[in-house]
Structures are given as C-alpha cells and as structure tokens.
CHASE2 domain-containing protein (Maribellus comscasis), 412 residues
Amino acid sequence: MPLFKNIKSLFRNYFVKYKIWLISLAHSFVLLSLGYIWLGMTYTFGDEAFLIKWTALIKKDILNFDPKPLPSEVLFINTSQSKVEIEINRDPLAIQPEEIEITDRKQLSELVSLIEPYKDDVQLVVLDLIFDLPSEDDSLLQTRLDKMGNKILGAVHINKNKEIPESVLDLPVALATYRSAEGMFFKYPIVYNEQKTLPAIMYEKISGNTISKKGMFFRDGNKISLKAPITDFKVRMTDFKLGKNLDESNFALHHMGTITELGKFMEPKDLKKMFAGKIIMIGDFDNDTHKTAFGIMPGMLIVFNAYLTLLNNDNIITLGWLLLIVIGFTWISHRILTGKGFNLLDLLKNKFRSGWIHFIIDSLDELFFLSILTILSYLFFNIHINILVLFVYLKLVEFGIDIVKNRYKIEV
C-alpha cells in the first residue's frame, strides 16, 4: 500500500507540474481533428492557394526536391490535331445545323487497334476524352474498345448544369472533375459527388489496391488516406519536348495521327516496345488546359500527376506527419494558454499600449508560426494545413481563455 501511495503521489506531482503541457497535448488532438476535416474538403481556400503555390515552387525549383517517374512508364498521345466536324441539331428552329469539332473517332479506333494485340503488356489506356455526341464512326470504335477488356478507362465530366452527360460509347468511365481555387487547380479529390474520380480509379486498376471509406476515414488498404490530397506535380510541361523520335529518353508527346500512320509500317516487336509496360494517356494537350502553380497544364497531365500522388502515398497520413503536427499544435496551444514562448514581436508590442494593437501583433505572431508549421508539413509530407480556419479557431480560444483568466483571477 505505501508503494501504491508513493506512485499515486508521484503521478499527482507530475500532473501538477506538467498539467498545462498535458492540456496542450490534449488540445492538439482537437486541432488535428479540425485540420483533418478541412483537409477533406474538395476545394482550396485562398490562403491555402497562396502558400501551396509558393511552397511548391520553392520545394521543386529552389530546393530541387523533385523526384520523377521514369519516362518509359508512360506514353502521352495528343489528339488536338485529330479533329473532325459533325453536324448536330440542338435548336429545332435553326435554319442550319450546328457544326461541332470532336476527336476523330475513326483515327482513334485505328490507334486502339494498334494497342489491342499488346493489351496484356499495357498497364492501362486512359481516354481523357468526352463522347457525349454521336458520330458515324462510333460502331467501329466501340468494336475496338470492346476488345480491350479491362485495360481501357474513359472519362466523364460534370457539365455547367451539374449533370454528367451520357456517353454514346459503352466503356468503363470515371469522373474527371475538380474544384478550383481562384481559378487555379490544387487538389484532385479521391471522391467527388459520391463518385470516385479518374486518378483514383487509375490507381486502383494499376496498383490493385482499393480506397474505401470506413467510418469517418478514407482508407487505402489499412492506411488512413486524405479525401482530397494536394497534387504533387512530378511531371510538368518543362519536362516535355515534342516527340519526333518514339525512343526519346525524356517525357515525349506524340500526335495520334503520327502514331497511326507510322504504326502501319512498324514491325510487331517495335509496336510492342512502344506500348508494353506503359500507361497510355490519350487526350487533347492543346485545348483542354487548366491553370496551376506551374503555369498552364493540360487536363491529361493533371490527371497523371494526381495518379502519381496516390501511387507515391502522398495521400497517406503517416506517423511522422502526425508527430510533427501534434508537437507543433501542442507548442502553439501551450503558448496560447500561458502567454509564454518564442514571441517574435515583443519589442514591437512594447511600443504600444492599446490592447487591440497588442491583439493584432499577437495575431501576426501566431499566423507566422502556423505558416511555418504548414510549410514544414508540405515540404516533408506534401500535406498542407488550412491555417486560416485554425487561426480563427485559436483566436476564439485565446479570447475565451483571457475572459476566464480575468474574471476568476487565474494565474497560469
């Protein structure tokens, strides 16, 4: 019994001595929970957009931390020069039918027929193209697509009416839609409008893993995953040169018409070398473009980078990230509870007597430390924390603590 009392007394003494740190640690998990909820949002806030843009540029262009996949693992095929016009009658009162440009489906069927004999050696063929309007070559293309089995994957988009237009072709499809922040792309969610997106389905088909929601969390196997990870642009437009030689070592872009013409004269072993072991990305590189932190980028390249983000586990919440965030949030919480810590702007505060000015200066100080934490999180784990939401919450907590301290004359 004396031993039990001694242990109990020891724990009581430690709790009294370190109670503020223990409370701060507990509060860090509240902040972590709030952060996880906001990280699951499919859109990006303005403050996130600014920090993501500049930390991404610093990480890749200045620190040169920029690992890339092998160019031999992917084949990019551009359809922008393979267009045909079709006539459609959208308006029954119109005198003349409307002329619309679509991808040349006859040429596309020729490309698929070149790939089909080697489908077992291909990782996946992704058609980032829309087939919402019929053409006279649809039956031919459908026949070719049917022969590809599960090695083909198409894309669908949500239109301005927030509807998904029905495809005139029968093939497996996934949603290729995201929400921008200030007109710029940052995140490609795993799930959007209750449907898995194109990069997520690509990842599942190629890796054999499954991302599913279990309880409150999305899981990639047994690992907790973010719902909307920030896309890490491992392959950018500066990594390309126009592909005139199909054996170029750099990332190359080949035109669909060029491949179909050359393919007629190529030996089977050369065709196999061109397609085998690759993810074949087919889409419009010139017209389907989006604004990113690294400039204008084709939608097909964004999809590929979003897939690489999942493949490299940048969506996974790791123990290292949790330790960084819990330590950071614990220190920030302790600083708010005690008013003690590393205060950058104390000298500036001493020049003013106004409580409101002190509040503003303290806010700048706390915003700085939150920014440092999110920059470290992004640089090392590619996870960015929404500091504006957490900052507002922390200021409300600080305001409440100050009221309680003043009312009950509490010294911490």
User: Anything to note?
Assistant: The mean pLDDT is 84.
